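Lab notebook, bench 4. The sequencing result for the construct came back, and we need a structural model before the next group meeting so we can plan mutations. Quick request posted to the team channel:

Model the 3D structure of this chain.
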Amino acid sequence: MSESFAQLVETQRKLFNSGITRAVPFRKELLKRLEKCILSHEAEILEALHTDLGKSDFEAFTTEILLVLGEIRLMRRSLARWSRPRRVFPGLFNMPGSARVFREPHGVTLILSPWNYPFQLAVMPLAGALAAGNTVILKPSAYAPAVSALMARLFNTEFAPGILRVVEGGRTVNAGLLEQHFDHIFFTGSTTVGRLVMEKASRYLTPVTLELGGKSPCIIDKTADIDLAAKRIIWGKLINSGQTCVAPDYVLVHSAVHKRFIAAARLWINRYYGDMPHKNQAYPHIINRTHFDRLSALIETEKETIVAGGITDSVTMKIAPTLFDGVAWESPLMQEELFGPLLPIIEWDVEADIRDRILSRPRPLALYVFSRDKERIRRLTQSIPFGGGCVNDTIMHVASHSLPFGGTGESGMGSYHGRRSFETFSREKPVLSKPALFDLPLRYPPFEGVYRRFRRFL
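Done. Here's the predicted structure in C-alpha coordinate form:
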Protein backbone atom coordinates (compact mmCIF):
# COMPACT_ATOMS: atom_id res chain seq x y z
CA MET A 1 0.00 0.00 0.00
CA SER A 2 1.21 3.50 -0.83
CA GLU A 3 0.61 5.16 2.52
CA SER A 4 2.30 4.09 5.73
CA PHE A 5 0.33 2.56 8.58
CA ALA A 6 0.84 5.70 10.65
CA GLN A 7 -0.49 7.87 7.81
CA LEU A 8 -3.51 5.62 7.36
CA VAL A 9 -4.34 5.74 11.06
CA GLU A 10 -3.95 9.53 10.99
CA THR A 11 -6.26 9.79 7.96
CA GLN A 12 -8.92 7.81 9.76
CA ARG A 13 -8.48 9.70 13.02
CA LYS A 14 -8.88 13.01 11.18
CA LEU A 15 -12.12 11.85 9.60
CA PHE A 16 -13.43 10.43 12.88
CA ASN A 17 -12.64 13.66 14.70
CA SER A 18 -14.63 15.57 12.09
CA GLY A 19 -17.76 14.01 13.62
CA ILE A 20 -19.23 12.75 10.36
CA THR A 21 -19.47 9.12 11.54
CA ARG A 22 -21.58 10.05 14.56
CA ALA A 23 -24.69 10.76 12.48
CA VAL A 24 -27.05 7.77 12.42
CA PRO A 25 -28.16 8.36 8.78
CA PHE A 26 -24.50 8.30 7.71
CA ARG A 27 -23.90 4.99 9.49
CA LYS A 28 -27.04 3.46 8.00
CA GLU A 29 -25.88 4.48 4.56
CA LEU A 30 -22.53 2.74 5.14
CA LEU A 31 -24.34 -0.45 6.18
CA LYS A 32 -26.60 -0.22 3.13
CA ARG A 33 -23.55 0.17 0.90
CA LEU A 34 -21.88 -2.82 2.57
CA GLU A 35 -24.95 -5.00 2.04
CA LYS A 36 -25.27 -3.95 -1.60
CA CYS A 37 -21.59 -4.69 -2.20
CA ILE A 38 -21.99 -8.23 -0.81
CA LEU A 39 -25.13 -8.98 -2.81
CA SER A 40 -23.63 -7.61 -6.03
CA HIS A 41 -20.55 -9.82 -5.70
CA GLU A 42 -22.05 -12.93 -4.10
CA ALA A 43 -20.83 -15.27 -6.86
CA GLU A 44 -17.27 -13.94 -6.53
CA ILE A 45 -17.34 -14.40 -2.76
CA LEU A 46 -18.51 -18.01 -3.14
CA GLU A 47 -15.79 -18.69 -5.70
CA ALA A 48 -13.10 -17.22 -3.45
CA LEU A 49 -14.28 -19.35 -0.50
CA HIS A 50 -14.12 -22.44 -2.68
CA THR A 51 -10.61 -21.54 -3.80
CA ASP A 52 -9.29 -21.05 -0.27
CA LEU A 53 -11.14 -23.80 1.60
CA GLY A 54 -12.99 -25.96 -0.92
CA LYS A 55 -16.39 -25.00 0.48
CA SER A 56 -19.51 -25.89 -1.47
CA ASP A 57 -21.74 -22.99 -2.51
CA PHE A 58 -24.42 -23.96 0.02
CA GLU A 59 -22.03 -24.29 2.98
CA ALA A 60 -20.23 -21.08 2.01
CA PHE A 61 -23.47 -19.13 1.63
CA THR A 62 -25.09 -20.33 4.86
CA THR A 63 -22.03 -20.08 7.09
CA GLU A 64 -20.36 -17.00 5.60
CA ILE A 65 -22.79 -14.76 3.68
CA LEU A 66 -26.25 -15.41 5.14
CA LEU A 67 -25.19 -14.67 8.73
CA VAL A 68 -23.49 -11.46 7.65
CA LEU A 69 -26.53 -10.24 5.72
CA GLY A 70 -28.75 -10.97 8.73
CA GLU A 71 -26.41 -9.00 10.97
CA ILE A 72 -26.32 -5.98 8.65
CA ARG A 73 -30.10 -5.92 8.23
CA LEU A 74 -30.69 -6.15 11.97
CA MET A 75 -28.34 -3.21 12.53
CA ARG A 76 -29.98 -1.08 9.87
CA ARG A 77 -33.40 -1.67 11.43
CA SER A 78 -32.26 -1.14 15.02
CA LEU A 79 -29.52 1.46 14.79
CA ALA A 80 -31.65 4.52 15.55
CA ARG A 81 -33.09 2.85 18.66
CA TRP A 82 -29.74 1.55 19.89
CA SER A 83 -28.12 4.97 19.42
CA ARG A 84 -30.78 6.90 21.32
CA PRO A 85 -29.52 8.50 24.57
CA ARG A 86 -30.87 6.76 27.66
CA ARG A 87 -32.30 8.79 30.53
CA VAL A 88 -31.38 7.67 34.05
CA PHE A 89 -32.18 8.94 37.53
CA PRO A 90 -29.38 11.33 38.60
CA GLY A 91 -29.65 10.57 42.34
CA LEU A 92 -31.01 12.62 45.22
CA PHE A 93 -27.83 14.67 45.61
CA ASN A 94 -28.10 15.84 42.01
CA MET A 95 -31.67 17.06 42.23
CA PRO A 96 -32.79 19.13 40.51
CA GLY A 97 -30.94 17.76 37.53
CA SER A 98 -31.12 15.27 34.71
CA ALA A 99 -28.79 12.51 33.53
CA ARG A 100 -28.39 10.75 30.21
CA VAL A 101 -26.13 8.00 28.93
CA PHE A 102 -24.86 8.33 25.36
CA ARG A 103 -23.39 5.61 23.16
CA GLU A 104 -20.08 6.88 21.81
CA PRO A 105 -17.93 5.12 19.16
CA HIS A 106 -14.38 4.22 20.16
CA GLY A 107 -12.75 5.88 17.16
CA VAL A 108 -10.15 4.27 14.88
CA THR A 109 -10.49 0.49 15.13
CA LEU A 110 -8.38 -2.41 13.94
CA ILE A 111 -10.02 -5.73 13.00
CA LEU A 112 -7.71 -8.74 12.60
CA SER A 113 -9.68 -11.61 11.07
CA PRO A 114 -8.82 -15.33 10.70
CA TRP A 115 -8.67 -17.75 7.79
CA ASN A 116 -11.23 -20.41 8.73
CA TYR A 117 -14.31 -18.27 8.01
CA PRO A 118 -12.44 -15.55 6.18
CA PHE A 119 -15.46 -13.59 4.99
CA GLN A 120 -17.89 -13.98 7.90
CA LEU A 121 -15.37 -13.36 10.67
CA ALA A 122 -14.12 -10.23 8.92
CA VAL A 123 -17.42 -8.65 7.92
CA MET A 124 -19.48 -9.49 11.04
CA PRO A 125 -17.30 -7.33 13.32
CA LEU A 126 -16.87 -4.82 10.49
CA ALA A 127 -20.64 -4.26 10.40
CA GLY A 128 -20.69 -3.68 14.16
CA ALA A 129 -17.80 -1.24 13.98
CA LEU A 130 -19.41 0.82 11.22
CA ALA A 131 -22.82 0.72 12.92
CA ALA A 132 -21.29 2.10 16.12
CA GLY A 133 -19.69 5.01 14.21
CA ASN A 134 -16.04 3.95 14.04
CA THR A 135 -13.55 4.03 11.22
CA VAL A 136 -11.97 0.65 10.43
CA ILE A 137 -8.70 -0.82 9.26
CA LEU A 138 -9.43 -4.44 8.35
CA LYS A 139 -6.58 -6.94 8.13
CA PRO A 140 -7.70 -10.31 6.66
CA SER A 141 -5.67 -13.48 7.06
CA ALA A 142 -2.99 -14.14 4.47
CA TYR A 143 -3.84 -17.86 4.75
CA ALA A 144 -7.05 -17.21 2.79
CA PRO A 145 -5.52 -15.20 -0.10
CA ALA A 146 -8.47 -15.35 -2.52
CA VAL A 147 -10.96 -13.96 0.00
CA SER A 148 -8.43 -11.43 1.28
CA ALA A 149 -7.72 -10.09 -2.22
CA LEU A 150 -11.43 -9.94 -3.05
CA MET A 151 -12.32 -8.00 0.10
CA ALA A 152 -9.46 -5.57 -0.55
CA ARG A 153 -10.63 -4.98 -4.11
CA LEU A 154 -14.31 -4.58 -3.25
CA PHE A 155 -14.16 -2.62 0.00
CA ASN A 156 -11.24 -0.36 -0.93
CA THR A 157 -13.16 0.61 -4.07
CA GLU A 158 -16.52 1.04 -2.36
CA PHE A 159 -15.39 2.97 0.73
CA ALA A 160 -13.09 5.94 1.25
CA PRO A 161 -9.83 5.06 3.07
CA GLY A 162 -10.81 7.41 5.90
CA ILE A 163 -13.82 5.18 6.63
CA LEU A 164 -12.61 1.67 5.78
CA ARG A 165 -9.34 0.32 4.49
CA VAL A 166 -8.49 -3.33 3.88
CA VAL A 167 -4.78 -3.99 4.35
CA GLU A 168 -3.36 -7.26 3.02
CA GLY A 169 -0.20 -9.07 4.02
CA GLY A 170 1.34 -11.54 6.43
CA ARG A 171 2.99 -11.37 9.84
CA THR A 172 5.11 -8.34 9.00
CA VAL A 173 1.97 -6.34 8.21
CA ASN A 174 0.30 -7.57 11.40
CA ALA A 175 3.32 -6.51 13.41
CA GLY A 176 3.40 -3.08 11.76
CA LEU A 177 -0.29 -2.47 12.42
CA LEU A 178 0.00 -3.51 16.05
CA GLU A 179 2.62 -0.83 16.61
CA GLN A 180 0.04 1.87 15.81
CA HIS A 181 -2.24 3.67 18.24
CA PHE A 182 -5.79 2.38 17.80
CA ASP A 183 -8.84 3.13 19.92
CA HIS A 184 -10.07 -0.48 19.84
CA ILE A 185 -8.63 -3.76 18.53
CA PHE A 186 -10.85 -6.71 17.61
CA PHE A 187 -8.94 -9.97 17.08
CA THR A 188 -10.17 -13.43 16.09
CA GLY A 189 -7.64 -16.26 16.09
CA SER A 190 -5.46 -18.41 18.29
CA THR A 191 -4.82 -17.92 21.99
CA THR A 192 -1.10 -17.61 21.32
CA VAL A 193 -1.51 -14.69 18.94
CA GLY A 194 -4.24 -13.25 21.18
CA ARG A 195 -1.68 -12.85 23.96
CA LEU A 196 0.61 -10.96 21.58
CA VAL A 197 -2.23 -8.67 20.47
CA MET A 198 -3.09 -7.88 24.09
CA GLU A 199 0.56 -7.21 24.91
CA LYS A 200 0.92 -4.78 22.00
CA ALA A 201 -2.38 -3.07 22.86
CA SER A 202 -1.17 -2.42 26.41
CA ARG A 203 1.36 0.10 25.09
CA TYR A 204 -1.47 2.57 24.46
CA LEU A 205 -3.94 1.01 26.93
CA THR A 206 -6.09 0.16 23.91
CA PRO A 207 -9.19 -1.91 24.77
CA VAL A 208 -9.31 -5.27 23.02
CA THR A 209 -11.88 -7.87 22.10
CA LEU A 210 -10.33 -11.33 21.77
CA GLU A 211 -12.29 -14.11 20.05
CA LEU A 212 -10.08 -17.16 20.55
CA GLY A 213 -10.72 -20.91 20.78
CA GLY A 214 -10.11 -23.97 22.87
CA LYS A 215 -11.13 -27.58 23.30
CA SER A 216 -14.93 -27.59 23.34
CA PRO A 217 -16.37 -30.78 24.88
CA CYS A 218 -19.56 -32.66 24.03
CA ILE A 219 -21.10 -34.55 26.94
CA ILE A 220 -23.53 -37.39 26.20
CA ASP A 221 -25.34 -39.17 29.02
CA LYS A 222 -27.34 -42.38 28.92
CA THR A 223 -30.69 -40.56 28.64
CA ALA A 224 -29.75 -38.81 25.40
CA ASP A 225 -31.25 -39.51 21.99
CA ILE A 226 -28.11 -41.17 20.64
CA ASP A 227 -28.96 -41.03 16.96
CA LEU A 228 -29.81 -37.32 17.19
CA ALA A 229 -26.66 -36.66 19.22
CA ALA A 230 -24.47 -38.38 16.63
CA LYS A 231 -26.26 -36.62 13.78
CA ARG A 232 -25.73 -33.15 15.24
CA ILE A 233 -22.24 -33.72 16.64
CA ILE A 234 -20.92 -35.10 13.35
CA TRP A 235 -22.61 -32.27 11.43
CA GLY A 236 -21.09 -29.66 13.77
CA LYS A 237 -17.68 -31.31 13.67
CA LEU A 238 -17.47 -31.57 9.89
CA ILE A 239 -18.61 -28.08 8.91
CA ASN A 240 -15.58 -26.56 7.20
CA SER A 241 -13.84 -29.90 7.75
CA GLY A 242 -13.63 -29.23 11.48
CA GLN A 243 -11.88 -25.87 11.05
CA THR A 244 -14.36 -24.09 13.30
CA CYS A 245 -13.54 -22.52 16.66
CA VAL A 246 -16.77 -23.79 18.24
CA ALA A 247 -16.66 -27.25 16.67
CA PRO A 248 -17.03 -30.19 19.08
CA ASP A 249 -13.42 -30.97 19.94
CA TYR A 250 -13.93 -34.20 21.87
CA VAL A 251 -16.85 -36.36 23.02
CA LEU A 252 -17.43 -37.61 26.57
CA VAL A 253 -19.98 -40.40 26.21
CA HIS A 254 -21.53 -42.48 28.99
CA SER A 255 -20.35 -46.10 28.95
CA ALA A 256 -23.94 -47.35 28.71
CA VAL A 257 -24.38 -45.76 25.25
CA HIS A 258 -20.75 -45.66 24.13
CA LYS A 259 -20.90 -48.36 21.43
CA ARG A 260 -24.25 -47.09 20.13
CA PHE A 261 -22.82 -43.62 19.70
CA ILE A 262 -19.81 -44.84 17.69
CA ALA A 263 -22.06 -46.86 15.39
CA ALA A 264 -24.39 -43.89 14.91
CA ALA A 265 -21.48 -41.52 14.28
CA ARG A 266 -20.11 -43.80 11.57
CA LEU A 267 -23.54 -43.96 10.01
CA TRP A 268 -23.95 -40.17 9.85
CA ILE A 269 -20.46 -39.66 8.40
CA ASN A 270 -21.45 -42.03 5.60
CA ARG A 271 -24.83 -40.36 5.06
CA TYR A 272 -23.31 -36.90 4.88
CA TYR A 273 -20.26 -37.56 2.71
CA GLY A 274 -20.37 -41.18 1.52
CA ASP A 275 -17.97 -44.03 2.19
CA MET A 276 -15.04 -42.02 0.79
CA PRO A 277 -15.52 -38.53 2.27
CA HIS A 278 -12.06 -37.38 1.22
CA LYS A 279 -13.18 -37.82 -2.41
CA ASN A 280 -16.42 -35.87 -1.96
CA GLN A 281 -16.37 -32.55 -3.82
CA ALA A 282 -18.61 -30.91 -1.19
CA TYR A 283 -16.22 -31.79 1.64
CA PRO A 284 -13.80 -28.90 2.38
CA HIS A 285 -10.04 -29.31 2.43
CA ILE A 286 -7.54 -28.30 5.10
CA ILE A 287 -6.41 -24.69 4.70
CA ASN A 288 -2.71 -25.33 3.97
CA ARG A 289 0.14 -27.82 4.09
CA THR A 290 1.26 -26.84 7.60
CA HIS A 291 -2.11 -27.62 9.16
CA PHE A 292 -2.54 -30.72 7.01
CA ASP A 293 0.80 -32.11 8.19
CA ARG A 294 -0.02 -31.31 11.84
CA LEU A 295 -3.32 -33.21 11.66
CA SER A 296 -1.75 -36.09 9.72
CA ALA A 297 0.90 -36.44 12.44
CA LEU A 298 -1.77 -36.63 15.12
CA ILE A 299 -3.55 -39.38 13.18
CA GLU A 300 -0.30 -41.34 12.91
CA THR A 301 0.38 -40.92 16.63
CA GLU A 302 -3.02 -42.33 17.63
CA LYS A 303 -3.65 -44.76 14.76
CA GLU A 304 -4.22 -47.68 17.17
CA THR A 305 -7.34 -45.97 18.53
CA ILE A 306 -8.92 -45.12 15.15
CA VAL A 307 -12.39 -46.63 14.67
CA ALA A 308 -13.39 -44.67 11.54
CA GLY A 309 -11.55 -42.73 8.86
CA GLY A 310 -7.85 -42.02 9.22
CA ILE A 311 -7.34 -41.51 5.48
CA THR A 312 -5.35 -38.48 4.33
CA ASP A 313 -4.88 -37.20 0.77
CA SER A 314 -1.75 -35.09 0.46
CA VAL A 315 -2.68 -33.94 -3.06
CA THR A 316 -6.10 -32.46 -2.24
CA MET A 317 -5.20 -31.83 1.44
CA LYS A 318 -8.41 -33.54 2.52
CA ILE A 319 -8.64 -35.70 5.63
CA ALA A 320 -11.46 -38.18 6.06
CA PRO A 321 -13.54 -37.71 9.24
CA THR A 322 -11.62 -39.69 11.85
CA LEU A 323 -13.02 -41.10 15.10
CA PHE A 324 -10.69 -42.19 17.91
CA ASP A 325 -12.04 -44.44 20.68
CA GLY A 326 -10.54 -45.06 24.10
CA VAL A 327 -8.39 -41.95 23.98
CA ALA A 328 -6.46 -41.13 27.17
CA TRP A 329 -6.66 -37.67 28.71
CA GLU A 330 -2.88 -37.48 28.32
CA SER A 331 -3.03 -38.23 24.58
CA PRO A 332 -1.58 -35.67 22.12
CA LEU A 333 -5.13 -35.37 20.76
CA MET A 334 -6.23 -33.91 24.09
CA GLN A 335 -3.47 -31.32 24.53
CA GLU A 336 -4.54 -28.65 22.05
CA GLU A 337 -7.51 -27.57 19.96
CA LEU A 338 -7.65 -29.97 17.01
CA PHE A 339 -9.16 -27.62 14.40
CA GLY A 340 -9.76 -30.42 11.92
CA PRO A 341 -11.99 -33.47 11.26
CA LEU A 342 -10.51 -35.50 14.15
CA LEU A 343 -12.84 -36.48 17.00
CA PRO A 344 -11.54 -38.25 20.15
CA ILE A 345 -14.09 -40.22 22.18
CA ILE A 346 -13.73 -40.87 25.93
CA GLU A 347 -16.06 -43.02 28.06
CA TRP A 348 -17.33 -41.92 31.46
CA ASP A 349 -19.44 -43.31 34.30
CA VAL A 350 -19.25 -40.67 37.05
CA GLU A 351 -20.38 -37.16 36.19
CA ALA A 352 -18.17 -35.53 38.82
CA ASP A 353 -15.07 -37.08 37.21
CA ILE A 354 -15.59 -35.52 33.79
CA ARG A 355 -16.72 -32.25 35.34
CA ASP A 356 -13.48 -32.06 37.34
CA ARG A 357 -11.46 -32.92 34.22
CA ILE A 358 -13.05 -30.06 32.27
CA LEU A 359 -12.61 -27.64 35.17
CA SER A 360 -8.91 -28.52 35.42
CA ARG A 361 -8.33 -27.36 31.84
CA PRO A 362 -8.47 -23.91 30.21
CA ARG A 363 -12.05 -22.70 29.89
CA PRO A 364 -13.62 -23.88 26.62
CA LEU A 365 -15.20 -21.60 24.03
CA ALA A 366 -18.24 -23.90 23.82
CA LEU A 367 -19.90 -26.72 25.76
CA TYR A 368 -22.49 -29.12 24.36
CA VAL A 369 -24.68 -31.35 26.51
CA PHE A 370 -26.88 -34.13 25.12
CA SER A 371 -29.33 -35.35 27.71
CA ARG A 372 -32.99 -35.58 28.70
CA ASP A 373 -32.09 -35.20 32.39
CA LYS A 374 -33.01 -31.60 33.25
CA GLU A 375 -31.18 -31.66 36.55
CA ARG A 376 -27.96 -32.91 34.95
CA ILE A 377 -28.26 -30.28 32.21
CA ARG A 378 -28.65 -27.61 34.88
CA ARG A 379 -25.65 -28.87 36.88
CA LEU A 380 -23.31 -29.06 33.91
CA THR A 381 -24.26 -25.80 32.22
CA GLN A 382 -24.19 -23.82 35.48
CA SER A 383 -21.12 -25.31 37.15
CA ILE A 384 -18.74 -25.26 34.17
CA PRO A 385 -17.51 -21.89 32.85
CA PHE A 386 -17.60 -21.72 29.05
CA GLY A 387 -18.15 -19.09 26.36
CA GLY A 388 -21.49 -20.32 25.04
CA GLY A 389 -23.12 -23.56 24.03
CA CYS A 390 -26.13 -25.71 23.28
CA VAL A 391 -28.26 -28.39 24.87
CA ASN A 392 -29.01 -31.25 22.46
CA ASP A 393 -27.33 -29.44 19.56
CA THR A 394 -23.97 -28.05 18.45
CA ILE A 395 -22.78 -24.74 17.00
CA MET A 396 -26.26 -23.28 16.39
CA HIS A 397 -25.97 -20.76 19.23
CA VAL A 398 -23.54 -18.89 16.98
CA ALA A 399 -26.27 -18.46 14.34
CA SER A 400 -28.48 -16.36 16.66
CA HIS A 401 -28.21 -12.59 16.40
CA SER A 402 -29.89 -12.37 19.82
CA LEU A 403 -27.18 -14.30 21.68
CA PRO A 404 -23.80 -12.73 22.46
CA PHE A 405 -20.89 -14.74 21.11
CA GLY A 406 -17.54 -14.77 22.91
CA GLY A 407 -15.20 -16.70 25.13
CA THR A 408 -14.01 -16.69 28.73
CA GLY A 409 -10.52 -17.06 30.17
CA GLU A 410 -8.16 -18.45 27.54
CA SER A 411 -11.02 -18.80 25.04
CA GLY A 412 -11.41 -15.03 24.80
CA MET A 413 -12.74 -11.81 26.27
CA GLY A 414 -15.60 -9.64 25.13
CA SER A 415 -18.44 -10.65 22.83
CA TYR A 416 -20.30 -9.60 19.72
CA HIS A 417 -23.25 -10.43 17.37
CA GLY A 418 -26.37 -8.32 17.02
CA ARG A 419 -26.76 -5.55 19.58
CA ARG A 420 -23.70 -6.82 21.45
CA SER A 421 -21.55 -5.91 18.42
CA PHE A 422 -22.84 -2.34 18.57
CA GLU A 423 -22.06 -2.23 22.29
CA THR A 424 -18.61 -3.78 21.85
CA PHE A 425 -17.59 -1.11 19.34
CA SER A 426 -18.93 1.76 21.44
CA ARG A 427 -18.83 2.90 25.04
CA GLU A 428 -21.32 4.47 27.45
CA LYS A 429 -20.70 8.16 28.11
CA PRO A 430 -22.71 9.63 31.02
CA VAL A 431 -23.64 13.32 31.08
CA LEU A 432 -25.20 15.08 34.09
CA SER A 433 -27.03 18.37 33.52
CA LYS A 434 -27.70 20.78 36.40
CA PRO A 435 -29.72 24.02 36.34
CA ALA A 436 -27.80 27.25 36.85
CA LEU A 437 -30.62 28.92 38.80
CA PHE A 438 -30.42 26.64 41.83
CA ASP A 439 -27.30 25.86 43.85
CA LEU A 440 -27.50 23.85 47.07
CA PRO A 441 -25.14 25.55 49.56
CA LEU A 442 -24.80 22.43 51.75
CA ARG A 443 -21.92 20.95 49.73
CA TYR A 444 -19.61 23.94 50.04
CA PRO A 445 -17.25 24.80 52.96
CA PRO A 446 -17.12 25.88 55.72
CA PHE A 447 -18.39 22.62 57.29
CA GLU A 448 -18.43 23.52 61.03
CA GLY A 449 -21.59 22.00 62.61
CA VAL A 450 -22.89 20.78 59.25
CA TYR A 451 -22.28 17.07 59.87
CA ARG A 452 -24.58 16.84 62.95
CA ARG A 453 -27.42 18.70 61.23
CA PHE A 454 -26.99 16.72 58.01
CA ARG A 455 -26.64 13.24 59.62
CA ARG A 456 -30.05 13.46 61.32
CA PHE A 457 -31.75 13.15 57.93
CA LEU A 458 -29.91 9.98 56.85
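The two ends are 65 Å apart (CA to CA).
Will bring this to the meeting.
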